[in-house]
Each structure stands twice: as C-alpha cells, then as structure tokens.
Design brief:
Layout lengths: L2 H7 L2 E2 L10 E2 L3 H22 L2 H8 L7 H11 L1 H19 L1 H10 L1 H12 L4 H27 L3 H23 L7 H37 L4 H5 L16 H12 L3 H32 L4 H13 L2 H14 L1 H7 L1
Helix pairs in contact: 3-5, 4-5, 4-7, 5-6, 6-8, 7-8, 8-10, 9-10, 10-13, 12-13, 13-14, 13-15, 13-16, 14-15
C-alpha cells in the first residue's frame, strides 16, 4: 500500500498539486465545529427560556423565594437589556395570571432583589452595601405601593391589614375549636394572638425580605456567572469568614434595654428592630457553623442536615454563635485546635 492510500484511509488527503508529503487533516475540524455550534445555539436559546422563568417561580409559591435568580442570570450571563426584559415580561405575566395584588408583591419583593442587586453588583460594591441598599429600596417600594393602593381604592391600608388579620385569626381559632370536643382557645387568647401578630408584622416582613436578599445573593455568588466572585475579589469560601458589622451590636443592646423597660411605642419599635437584628446574627451564626463543618470534615449531606436542624430546631445556638462571635471569635479557637 502506498503512503497516499494509507493517509487517505486515516482521514488525511493530499492535494494533487501539493508537494509530496504535505497532508491536510479533514477529520478533526468539522466534527469539532459542529458540537461548538450546537452549544452556542443552545446557550442562545436558553435566554428565551429564562425570560418567563421568574414569573413561573413566583406564581408557583413553592419556588417564589428563588424568583430573582433567572433575572440575575439574564443580567450577567447575557446583558443588562435581557435582565430588564426578563423583569418586564415576568411582571406582565404575574399581573395577567395573578392579578394586581400579586403584581404588587412581585414589584416589592422580587424586582429590587433582581435588578437593584444586579446593578449594585455590577458596580462592585461590598456585599453589605448591596444587601443594605436593596433592603432599603424594597422598603421604599413597599411604602409607595401601599400608599398607592390606599389612594386608588380609598381605604386605610393599616385598617385593611388589621381587618384581614383579624378575620384570618378568627378562622384559625374557629377551626381549632371545631376540631375538638372542648374549645382550646378562648376569646382572650385569640385577642392576644391578634395583637402579637399585628405588633410583630413589620419585623416578619423585614426578615422575609432579608432572607430573600441573602438567599439569592449567596446562590448567585455560588453559581459564579460571568466570574462575579473574582470581580468582587471573593473566593469560593468567602461566606465561612463572613461576620456581621460590629456596629450592629450597639442598636441590639439598646433594643434589649427597651424590651426590659417598656415605653409604649418605643418598646414596640425596639421589639421589631431586635428581631430583625437577631435574623442578621442568625446568618452570622450560619457562617460560623459552616466554618466548623468544613474544619471537622463533615460531608455535604450531613452538613445540609446540620444546617436544617440548627435553623429550625436549635435556633438559639445560631444566635449565640453569631452574636458572641464578636467577642470570642470561635473560628480562631478552632484553627488553634
């Protein structure tokens, strides 16, 4: 067999006008170009799938916490324009399928987390500033939407919320009483429930906003689209070293004083602020716990179970780890041991 025939069988060819011994490889270029082209086309189609995904997450209820993620991915994976288009299209779908109230919730809780956070991350701000500004704008959006709703429908938004809350508690009490032979909850306890829920509602809403900001920020940084961590100067283990700002300890102590010494409206405001600050220290505690799990070599499945147990069953442990880490620096003691 000649050299030309052997090269032809292996996928090489020799041009007739070419010099002897000069071969061209046809078998490697085309097969490599086809998968690359398919990947590019698939990535281009992906943005059209992501456009309505935020609305679908929000309307599902179960995945509503992660509704900002598709918009964040569109913003950083493709462009700012695609991020804003995703928010606009999702808002229209929420209004069409869920109504005005669902749209108001989407504008207050999802749009700031998606677009405001994306713009702030694009400017390479610190995570603390990103979270603070996003939370403040969520509060501004909520206030504007509440005042707008009250003005359009000619109602007092606080009275409406109080009325709806009273009805909800009455329904719960009635269902409890009907389920047993004897009433479990008397009228006095039901009124105390209503009062407690109404008083603590601001902190509950603020904590929900904080959880949404924190969860989406951590997941997005974990996914690391467009090398966002590197642009912010962070590595994959940054959360294990994170600490709550030290100045927060002073408003926490002041709120604790007003919880012990009751001063009408001041104590109510202090209670709500104290609960919100404790949520921040719980996030700090999760950071410390994450460092412990990594140092002790606990695997991911058991690590996830540990986070769930600490969050829902032994929450005081997280608060202790987060609040007192300012003075005791628990992570340094683990490093020494």
């Amino acid at each position: 067999m000649s050299q030309r025939e052997a090269d032809s069988q292996r996928g090489f060819s020799v041009s007739d006008g070419a010099e002897e011994g000069v071969v061209t490889d046809h078998s490697s270029s085309e097969p490599l170009q086809q998968p690359v082209a398919r990947i590019v086309r698939r990535q281009e189609r992906m943005k059209f799938y992501l456009l309505p995904l935020s609305a679908l997450f929000f309307l599902s209820g179960l995945f509503s916490l992660f509704s900002p993620l598709p918009i964040l991915i569109l913003f950083f994976r493709y462009s700012r324009l695609w991020g804003w288009l995703g928010a606009l299209l999702s808002g229209c779908l929420v209004a069409l399928l869920g109504g005005d109230f669902s749209l108001a919730l989407y504008v207050v809780f999802i749009v700031p987390v998606a677009l405001v956070m994306a713009e702030l991350l694009k400017k390479k701000m610190s995570l603390e500033r990103v979270a603070t500004i996003t939370l403040l704008l969520m509060g501004v959006f909520g206030l504007v939407m509440s005042l707008g709703y009250g003005r359009i429908h000619h109602v007092n938004i606080l009275s409406t919320v109080s009325h709806e809350l009273n009805q909800a508690v009455d329904q719960v009490v009635q269902s409890i009483q009907e389920s047993g032979k004897q009433p479990w909850v008397d009228a006095g306890e039901a009124e105390e429930w209503k009062r407690s829920i109404l008083i603590e509602m601001p902190s509950a809403i603020a904590i929900l906003a904080l959880v949404m900001v924190w969860a989406n920020l951590m997941i997005f940084l974990r996914l690391n689209f467009s090398q966002i961590r590197e642009s912010l100067g962070l590595d994959a283990t940054f959360y294990r070293r994170w600490k709550a700002p030290e100045f927060l300890v002073w408003p926490t102590l002041v709120c604790g004083v007003f919880l012990l010494v009751e001063v009408k409206f001041v104590s109510v405001a202090a209670l709500n602020l104290f609960k919100f600050l404790m949520a921040i220290y719980a996030i700090h505690g999760l950071s410390v716990l994450s460092f412990f799990f990594e140092a002790w070599g606990i695997r991911r499945a058991f690590r996830g179970a540990g986070f769930v147990i600490a969050t829902f069953l032994v929450r005081p442990l997280l608060l202790v780890l987060g609040f007192f880490d300012l003075w005791f620096d628990f992570r340094s003691k683990v490093r020494q041991s």
